[in-house]
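Dear support,

Our group has been running a series of protein-ligand predictions, and this particular one with NAP is the one our PI (initials K.S.) wants archived with full inputs and outputs. We had some confusion internally about which version of the output was final, so please treat the block below as the authoritative record. The input we submitted was:
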Amino acid sequence: MEPNEKYIAAENRYADMDKNYNRCGKSGVLLPKVSLGMWHNFGANDPYERSKAITHYAFDHGITHFDLANNYGPPYGSAEETMGRLMEQDFRPYRDELFISSKAGYDMWEGPYGEWGSRKYLMASLDQSLRRMKLDYVDLFYSHRFDPKTPIEETLQALVDIVRQGKALYVGISNWPLEPLKAAVPYLKERDVPLLIYQGRLNMLNREPIETGILEFCRQEGVGFIAYSPLAQGLLTERYLDGIPADSRMAKEHFLKSERRTPELLAYLRQLEAQGKAHGRTIAQEALAWILAQEGVTSVLVGASSVKQLQDNLAII
Ligand SMILES: NC(=O)c1ccc[n+]([C@@H]2O[C@H](COP(=O)([O-])OP(=O)(O)OC[C@H]3O[C@@H](n4cnc5c(N)ncnc54)[C@H](OP(=O)(O)O)[C@@H]3O)[C@@H](O)[C@H]2O)c1
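Confirmed final output from the archive:
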């Protein structure tokens, strides 16, 4: 696509509706089995043309769900600004076909009101997110982490009120432990803002939501579950089999440290590679298929630094 060419979404993007979407818990919402996360690769330091190519490819192939948070970038806020630019230039005509989420919980701005779970922080942060993304509302707004020092009712009531104000259509919870999650579900249900979805880290190397019972609890309660870092930030792919590529997340030594590339991991990956070959799948596809086979999982929330990676991941469905 030329830089000034108008974006027109692929006509056949919903050709495989029955195959590509899962119902989110007991809600009316269908989410794509593969959703796109914008934590990395979509900030101000990343080439905009590449962000554009990846998001276009996603939407052209039926990925309707894009996941953001206030502090995605770097710098913080800039992934949402990229989404705002995409909205203005390409996606506005398709707004009703998109399911866009954002979150607040981690450190975003200085001072006492820039992180955690107070009403003050959540309300202000969502207003900022809407401005950056050039949206009137988000489809889904999350509490990004549990705040043990704020009364749980304050955080949850802020989520309820955000929906009442029309700034979000649904609410979600991410990274909360099981006990407060168990309190959140009835609180929200009694106020007619049922919890739509839980976002937790789940992959073949980290099975915490299964071990803690969170996935099973969500399934029983009719709450959807979306698995973040399904490829363990790239570890569960071919990316690091033969070294650490200079353009990889691990090479940055920040969120993914090179110490994770152990002989045990490499042996595990070789095993997965062989297993994948038997199924006609890549390592990444094998890892995503494992998650989607878990009962209660609605979607895998992948990241991608190229169209080719996304293409590989999408081939799973
Ligand atoms: N709620 C939370 O607290 C939380 C936390 C983390 C993430 N998330 C959400 O989950 C999303 C995904 O997280 P993530 O980026 O860690 O997910 P991931 O899918 O586990 O890792 C994505 C990275 O893996 C590599 N990759 C992806 N597909 C590949 C393929 N087919 N072959 C080779 N390498 C491949 C790329 O690494 P390179 O960049 O090195 O190429 C890519 O950036 C985030 O964007 C965010 O929306 C939420």
